[in-house]
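User: Quick sanity check before I run a bigger batch. Here is a single chain. Can you write out its predicted 3D structure?
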Amino acid sequence: MSVVTFREMQETLVALLGRQVMGPDEVGELAEYLLGFFGYGTEVVDNVLQPDDRDVFYMLEEEGLLSTRQEEVLVTPGRLWRLHYWILRVDHVKRALQKAGDEAEEHEVLYENMADEVWVRRQAS
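Assistant: Done. Predicted structure follows.
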């Protein structure tokens, strides 16, 4: 199983939510908040979430970072217990990081190929 580090989570959130939506401190807090639930795992039982937590998870599900699954367990004959899980989509995290890295490389190549005249600022007359 692949582990998502704090740095990876932070960079993924910046890539998904953009720098305009949240500042660096807020993104760091959200990354820490999420990893507080998932730790080194990829699933969280919905029962441990408070309503405010669940709202955040729904928002991140819309961004593709989380998904859900359901399991039914037979408790006693004729009685089912439904468990709901939130799943951290590690594959999506890794893809978002790769895409952000590719875009950064494209920008780097673009700037490297610009002529020196482009970088010179006009001096006031």
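The chain is about 55% helix and 20% strand.

User: Great, the batch can go ahead then.
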